[in-house]
Every structure is written in C-alpha cells, then in structure tokens.
Write a structure and sequence with these properties.
By secondary structure, the protein is mainly alpha-helical. It has a single domain (2-112), classed as Orthogonal Bundle (Arc Repressor Mutant, subunit A), CATH 1.10.10. Helices cover 46% and strands 7% of the residues. The chain contains six helices and four strands, in the order αβααβαββαα. The chain has helices at residues 2-10, 20-26, 33-42, 63-74, 86-89, 103-112; strands at 18-19, 51-52, 79-80, 83-84. The strands form two sheets. Strands 1-2 form a two-stranded parallel ribbon. Strands 3-4 form a two-stranded antiparallel ribbon. Helix 2 (20-26) packs across helix 3.
C-alpha cells in the first residue's frame, strides 16, 4: 500500500499540488488520506510540500507550515489568502478504469451481449 502511495506522490510535478485524498484515490485507496500522511511521515526524499489539505489548505502548523508555503512559492505556486490557488496549480491524476471485483460476473455479462 505504501509503495503505491509513494508512487502517486512522486507523480505530482514541480509547480503543482495535490490533496491527501486525491493521492489516496490515485493510489487505489479512496478514503485513505491518513495513510498518505503516514507514508509522508516515514518516507524520506519525497516532495512532501506538494501535498495539501482539501481546498488547498496547508494542514501543517508552526514552522513547518511556513516552510511548506515557502517551498511552494519558490516553485511558482500562488496562493489565495492562506490557501493554494487550486484552479491554477492542482495536479489532476489521470482517471483509471475500475477493476472488476468478481471475474465470473464480468465474463457472464460479456456472454449475454
């Protein structure tokens, strides 16, 4: 699970941001935003500053929040007040096809056609 989340985080390019929830969904685990936080915490060498809360909010507190904003601004990310301008800088992951849970059901649907 962590490897898929880390791979999704690495896809976010310089000058763009993504949310914890969007990364979890792109990794194949919708609703697992807390696992994204955990993966960022235990993995070294990730662009942690490119991951923000819903709506572009910086969820970190204190000095870490200032550092995250500074790093994002140095990459050219703009802010609207305290939030990232998501209209300009949100990275949209490509949509993936849904996996069929039961292979037999998929085959029977094909036969009926």
């Amino acid at each position: 699970m962590r490897d898929l989340i880390v791979a999704a985080i690495r896809k976010v390019p310089r000058g763009h941001v993504s949310t914890y929830g969007a990364i979890a969904k792109a990794a194949g685990f919708p609703g697992a935003a807390r696992q994204v936080v955990r993966a960022l915490h235990v993995s070294a060498g990730l662009a942690w500053h490119r991951v923000v809360g819903a709506g572009g909010e910086i969820k970190l507190r204190g000095e870490s929040a200032f550092e995250q904003r500074f790093r994002l601004e140095s990459e050219g990310v703009t802010f609207r007040g305290r939030r990232v301008n998501m209209r300009l800088h949100e990275f949209k992951f490509p949509k993936t096809k849904r996996r069929v849970k039961n292979h037999r059901k998929a085959q029977s649907k094909k036969r009926k056609r």
